[in-house]
Amino acid sequence: MGQSVLPPGIPPEGFIKLTKPAKPELTSEQRAALIRQGNVYFSQGDLEKARRIFFTTGYKDGLSRVGVALLKKGEVLEALRMFYFAEDKDKMNLICSRIAEVIKFWLRSEA
Fold this sequence. Notes:
Helices cover 66% and strands 0% of the residues. The protein is an all-alpha fold.
């Protein structure tokens, strides 16, 4: 069997890792305080710190908002990852549809 040939720029290990991180045990007060701090970081534009807090707390709305912000910055695959963890199927489907259109274009251009 021959090896599959990937288009240039596609890493052989794939694009994104989709394992959910373990969440620490937090009281509701601790979780609320962390989410507030994550929202502050998000408002300040520090998406990485906000993302870490939203992952830690399992705050899906925050992860989805980080995904939207990443999408606006052109970081499509990382945005898709955030939507996956936020369980935001509508936004995931939108990105997957766009990716499918790109792949269709690639296939048509090779013919």
